[in-house]
Structure formats: structure tokens, C-alpha cells
Design a protein that fits this description.
The protein is an alpha+beta fold and about 160 residues long. Helices cover about 20% and strands about 35% of the residues.
């Protein structure tokens, strides 16, 4: 038997087990505890608009999970990254209509996109963003948040 074939055959059980473990961890619709945000923030925008108790997604797992499988957006979700880059959102396994607002490094809300549940349509930020805020569709309007608003302060706490 060739050395390459021996290496492949000896690695096969580990690859199968690893693939199985990943499929179990993916949870086929379950929200994994490690993916649940453990930080919540009160966000203060210009014009004294305050959003309280917004969960923050910072880890790749939390961001991948987002608001998937939920029947209510609650207080929404803030996605936060350490550096500004173009961001993209989609709605696979997301059951409720959402809007995403993109926020630049200086705190300016520069774009809001409505997103349709359970679609794979991509919603790109028009410019680099350090944050994105998902709210139930219509909440940006109800709260008075529109492009040009500024995120002035965030007070965060760990759960």
C-alpha cells in the first residue's frame, strides 16, 4: 500500500468523526449556547434616541447565529467588529422580517436595508462599517433612526 493511501485511510475515521461533530454542533436549527450573545448594550444615538438592552454579536459563532430561528426580534442585535470593512447580511433561517442599519467607524448610520425572511439575498454595506444593527422591520422608522444619525454612546454589560 502506498504511503499516501495509508495516510488517507488512517485519517478517514477522524475526518468522518470530525464531520459528524461539526454537523452536531451546527445543530440543524438549534441555537447553540456558545452562539448566544453574552453582552448587552444601551445605545444612544443623536436626537436622544436610546435603544436599551441590545444583545451584541462579536464572535464568529454569535454573528453566524444572529437572529436565526427566532419568532420575535426583541430589542434587535448589534453586530460589532474591531475594524471597518464592507459587510454583508442575508436571511437564511431567519423567520422574521428585519432591517439592518450599517454604522461607520465614526458612528454614522449610513444605510438601512430591509431584508426578507428566509432568503439568501445579499445586503451589502455601501461603505466600510464597524457595526451593523438589526431591528424588526419598521423599527428604524418608529424609533426615528435614519441615515445620518450618529451613535454617540454605548454602555455595555456582560450577562
Amino acid at each position: 500500500m502506498s504511503t499516501a493511501r495509508t495516510a488517507i485511510l488512517s485519517a478517514l475515521p477522524g475526518l468522518i468523526l470530525g464531520g459528524f461533530a461539526l454537523s452536531v454542533l451546527a445543530g440543524a436549527g438549534e441555537i447553540q449556547p456558545a452562539a448566544n450573545p453574552t453582552e448587552r448594550c444601551t445605545l444612544t444615538f443623536s436626537d436622544n434616541i436610546v435603544l436599551a438592552d441590545v444583545p451584541v454579536a462579536r464572535t464568529p459563532g454569535q454573528m453566524a447565529q444572529g437572529l436565526m430561528f427566532r419568532k420575535d426580534a426583541g430589542s434587535g442585535m448589534l453586530f460589532s467588529w474591531p475594524e471597518a470593512k464592507q459587510r454583508v447580511f442575508w436571511m437564511r433561517n431567519t423567520l422574521i422580517p428585519l432591517s439592518v442599519g450599517f454604522i461607520s467607524a465614526d458612528g454614522t448610520l449610513f444605510g438601512i436595508e430591509d431584508m426578507t425572511p428566509e432568503t439568501d439575498d445579499y445586503h451589502y454595506s455601501a461603505e466600510p462599517a464597524t457595526d451593523a444593527l438589526e431591528l424588526a422591520q419598521g423599527e428604524f422608522v418608529r424609533k426615528g433612526l435614519k441615515p445620518g444619525a450618529r451613535l454617540l454612546n454605548r454602555e455595555c454589560r456582560s450577562d
